[in-house]
Amino acid sequence: MGDSLVIRSAAPARSLVDPWNRNAILADYYQNYLGSAVSDNELNWTGNLASCIPGTISQVAQNRTIQRINYYRRLVGLPDNMTFDPSRNTETQAAALIMGANNQLNHTPPSTSLCYSSAGLSGASNSNLGLGFHSSRAVKQYIDDRTPGNEEVGHRRWILYSRATSFGHGSARTSNPNFVTFADALWIANPTTTPASLPQYIAFPPAGYVPRTLIPDRWSFSIPGANFSSANVTLQDGLGAPLSLTTHTPGGAYGDNTLVWNLPATDLAWTGSADKSFRVTVSNVIQNGVTQPPYSYTVVAIDPSTVTSCPGTSPVASCSVTVSGGQSVFYGTAAFRFNTIDTQSSSASNDGQNYTDLSCVTQTTVTAGSSYTLNLQGAASNVHRLRVWIDYNGNGQFTDSGEQVVASSAGSVSAVVTIPTTASVNTLLRIRVMADAPSSATTACALTDGGQVDDYGLWIQSSTPPCTVMTTVQNGNWTSPATWSCNRAPLATDQVRIGHSITVGAGATVQVAKVTYLNGGRLSLLSSARLKLIP
């Protein structure tokens, strides 16, 4: 496991995350990949297809899109300080409108196109274009570059271009009558610069631990200015056995020179949460007319749900989710909203994951006794078995009375959830969300038909505010709970109101923040007793 990215200079090329530090890799993934998700609501597109108004998208969506771009660049060892050029955002927004209005992609849209504009033509001519997803989700679409005709991974190469300095970005809805889908444009043709230091090569997936949800079947290996015409690539599994692959002819003037190959789906099948290693060797690469020694590195695909520590407070433990039935393209969690949680996903197959633990990074706070609206939508408008559980008592089982808050067979469901006053407070609990095939036998701890289960974090605060102003209710001893309105003895931080005859026992010292004497109030200090005011 000694492979690492070799840097040409002692100066760091990025905000370094050690590729062989599992927890650091997973923390970055949770905070900056999963943490950069944008829901349809959060996109907040202000345009209009019928009136050909490009509109804008929210600053939240723009911030998270560049966050995800920088996450991918950091993952492969490139500078992660990219920004969006506002002037390019305007052109890409116009380009996204053209793509959405016509429901097709065209880098040179004719003037007869619906919602055509010169700004849109400029944006289309200089951008990655995508249909189906918006904002940060489109970034994954570009990086995966898995569709036929994209064997040169041009979209990926522009995002991971070693000399990139900035981008522009826009998203819009499409005119697809069957689904709510989006068009996206990412400007990539900005001025370039050569960083002070660069990795020896740019591999995707890179050397080190890589969350397996990010690993596509199409891999790439880039070196600025390299000649890959005679290059050869071989792969071995964790036991040293050779793996089959299909190498694509090098070409395409997209960013850095690149070699691309595909792995069969059988080699990318995951078993449980076990790691899976791939040893890559690229040979016969020519630079400046000289054939270079072979480049070798190891990629270890890891299950993101195996994170062993949270950036902050860890949630209560829960039953593990056992998975069977593969990863379905038809079933999964398209959207989930509850209080301040507002997330968007896709099918299990498109996300490459059946179970995702978001309890560390996606949390909300509710009040015991209050009611909140919950919305859950399955993938592709298909009928699903939709279930939501809240582990109110923190025992990790989701089987106690009242903990299943949604049970529906539908494409989507809306429910009002009232938080029990008996629920555990001030503890990070779990919300478990499931969307599976309608005929599945899925439970909170077992996914059986290829859908998805996601965990979120929940804080419950008490509906009764802390008792900090205490009033006497009868004559009695200071230390007796029955003497006080809060049914406990005062603390040093409390304010007290004395309206009865109260005694502090001999030798005792009592402390409070403030004392107010009401009519009839009297405090007796027996031998060596003291009252101290703590400001």
Query: Strand-residue fraction?
Result: 25-35%
Mean pLDDT: 91
Which value, in Å, is the CA radius of gyration? 29 Å
Q: Which word captures the global form?
A: elongated
Number of strands: 35
Low-confidence stretches: 1-15
In percent, how helical is the residue content? Answer: 10-25%
The main pleated sheet reads as: 6 strands, mixed
Our measurement of the CA-to-CA distance between the termini, rounded to an integer number of angstroms, reads 58 Å
Q: Helix- and strand-based class?
A: alpha/beta
Total helices: the number is: 8
Task: Please explain how this structure is put together.
Residues 67-179 form the SCP domain. Pfam families: CAP, GEVED. It comes from Spirosoma profusum. Residues 386-457 form the GEVED domain. The chain has 535 residues and is α/β, with parallel strands linked by helices. Helix content is 15%, strand content 31%.
